[in-house]
Amino acid sequence: MSVEQYLEEKLIPQPDIAVEVVGEVIVYCDPDTYPQVLPDTSKWKIAIGLHPKAAPYFNNDQFIAMQEALTDMRVSALGEIGLDRTVNPIHWMSQEKILDKLLGLARPNKPVILHLRGQATETMSDAVYTTRALEIVQNNCEPGAKIHLHCFHGKEKTSGYLASRFSEHLFQLFSLKGQKFP
């Protein structure tokens, strides 16, 4: 089933609130399932990345495939990439090394979609936004880089911190306060 066919399916149950969709992004963050041929549609933007939980298993062939995919004109963003501290701490260092390596693929004309999660006991903690991940971003992203921090659920104070510490970067914070995610 194609993405277009999937979206034609009726939602069950129907949403309580009608929304007008003005933009759509397909995010491929599992190298094993990157499409051989990217969808050729002007209706969609495409992002190529690696979910941080897969970092320990990321290999050079997958890196090369990602690097090649990012050169495709239909790919509009690098992501999602980041750190996910809900995994066993033995994987944290590999996540950091992979994030550092993948940020080397960032280009000024393609936003970076960051996935950041704290430890299992504090997945919604503001500390996840003000720690190691942002150090890595600051060390690797050019001034003016566009960074989308998806599923942001921090406090207003934290968004102020991000704006001041990364004033040369454009951060897009999409708040999902009150939402619960695994």
Structural account:
The protein has helices at 3-8, 60-70, 92-103, 132-140, 156-165, and strands at 25-28, 45-48, 75-84, 112-117, 146-152, 170-175. The chain is an alpha/beta fold. It has one domain: Metal-dependent hydrolases (TIM Barrel), CATH 3.20.20.140. A six-stranded parallel sheet has the order 1-2-3-4-5-6, with helices on one face. Helix 3 packs parallel to helix 4 (132-140). The longest helix has 12 residues, at 92-103. The two termini are 26 Å apart. The model is unreliable at 175-182 (pLDDT under 50).
Summing up helix and strand content along with how strands pair, one would put the structural category as: alpha/beta
**CATH superfamily caption:** Metal-dependent hydrolases
Number of helices: 5
- Could you list the spans in which at least 5 consecutive residues all have pLDDT below 50? 175-182
Fraction of residues in β-strands? 15-25%
The spatial strand order of the largest sheet comes to 1-2-3-4-5-6
CATH class: Alpha Beta
GO molecular function: hydrolase activity, acting on ester bonds
Pfam families: TatD_DNase
Family: Belongs to the metallo-dependent hydrolases superfamily. TatD-type hydrolase family.
InterPro entries: Metal_Hydrolase (IPR032466), TatD-like (IPR001130)
